[in-house]
Amino acid sequence: MFMIDKSNDIEFRPVEEIRAYQERRLHExxxxxxxxxxxxxxxxxxxxxxxxxxxGLDDLVKIPFPEKKDLQLFNDDFLCCEKSKIVDYITTxxxxxxxxxxxxxxxxxxxxxxxxxxxxxxxxMKPGDILQLMTTMDKRFMAGLAYFLGIREMGASIVRVGxxxxxxxxxxxxxxxxxxxxxxxxxxxRLIDYAREHGIDYRGSSVRRIISIGEGLREQDxxxxxxxxxxxxxxxxxxxxxxxxxxxxxxxSECPYGCGxxxxxxxxxxxxxxxxxxxxxDGEVGEVVVTTLGVEAMPxxxxxxGDMCAKVVEQCRxxxxxxxLTPLVGRKNNMLKLKGTTxxxxxxxxxxxxxxxxxxxxxxxxxxxAGTDDVTVRVSLNEERRAARTTLATDEAVIAELKNRFxxxxxxxxxxEILPADVLSRIAFPPKSRKPVKFIDNRKK
Length: 445
What we know:
The protein is an alpha/beta fold.
């Protein structure tokens, strides 16, 4: 059995030792930024910050937050090395319309490989395993490249199939027999449907583990959400949720106990802050703020991610003492106020992802005349499955049934509109997008 070397892994060291280690690495990061980053040197001068007086993690509150719009407006000023050292360019979505450019040096790619190796090991993978990758490596996307590098680093094998095309996915599973799939979890339901329709014994396949990206599988108490339960009920495989972003250059993966994404303390410092911009108590939901460690080209200090979750500090049953992050509640800027109830788009997605006659959907939010959020769910239908339900013969019946589902799970129901499949597909899959669009925010900020 493959064993992690706990004696050399900082995540298994005492909490006090982890904190002291991170404070040493923070000191190094501050001096690196002070010497190499035009953006942070300007910030330190503007706010009269003496980096030598940032003695520990508690002193981070003295430093302002950069946000994604700052990365967009002052992109080159964040670069800490010569452009000739950049070996890979990546883009991530921006708040001002255009993508934000990130550059990675050779050292950064090595760090990325190390991060993914640790995350795959956390999810129980070992040398000799085979992972089938169902995400793109092109379109300036970091994730696919990161996973490829991580699998190579740990000595496992990878099959780069890319996203979509259930027929090709099943041909690959039957031909190469991977034990692990990595994909957006809602796509697993399509794989199951395809297998059933074509007589494929998916339960008897080589697949034993699914590592999910891009969508949540668990509630805040770590129980499976609707999507997670639906997958598990149909396919008894191990499910692992992950959380990552381009800016962090890090992935937080669950271990087999499924109680939060493990943070790698040698790679990143995570704060959870409230509306007052101060750290919230452990276990309380707030915004994720990150400081990257060991990044050469574009390191970040106290970067606001916009993601909302909580920090868990108790020792995990796997033996790790580093803190964990709960499943994401949503994006701070995407919070909705629907008929007096506060919720985030993933809660709406969870209901729709588990409605078998919904083929595709987009959640659209506008300002109402009263100044509140006007939420509309636009769906297209799987007509074959709809026909199998005699109670859904009319669009009005479908809308009523969907609203009842929303009320059962969210207590409130948004407006529901039914669109032809081809019309909704053009909205959900715009030509330049690397991921399906599931949320459109038309509110005036």
